[in-house]
Amino acid sequence: MRAIRLDELSSEQLSELDQLYHTSPDPRVRIRALMILLSAERHLVAAEIAALVRQHEETVRRWFARYAAEGICGLADAPRSGTPPKVTPAYRQRLLELVRRRPRALGLPFSSGPPLGWPTLWPRRQACA
User: Rounded to an integer, what distance in angstroms lies between the CA atom of residue 56 and that of residue 83?
Assistant: First the structure.
């Protein structure tokens, strides 16, 4: 295959990519931004970048094409079909708040032993006569 390179990027585009690389919580988006940065700043071709980021060369080429067509927004995952998530962002935030609190701060009764009424797992020994 012939070597593929991106066109020269402006300093603004490089700054956007660098910002995305350092702040994105999604590791896939960070790797995609890194692919574009390596091509623009180090003038590496797709095959060299593929070896560095441990992706297939065709994958790097696809992300080059998508970046060229859609810009920085093209580096994010496309919407997928399927059932929408059951957990809303508000529910997730509330859950994280509760999980990070100390158990006693929740105002619920806690004990150090098994709940009352639980059968014992091992029968008690009878005293020998």
Answer: 30
Q: State how far the alpha carbon of 90 is from the alpha carbons of 17, 70, 105, 106, in Å.
A: 29, 31, 21, 19
The Cα–Cα gap between 40 and 38 comes to 6
Both tokens assigned to 44: 């590496």
Answer yes or no: is pLDDT of 96 > 80: yes
pLDDT value, residue 106: 75
Question: Does residue 109 register a pLDDT over 90?
Answer: no
Structure tokens given for 10:
């402006």
Q: What is the reported pTM?
A: 0.64
Residues 6+ away with beta carbon under 8 Å from 109: none
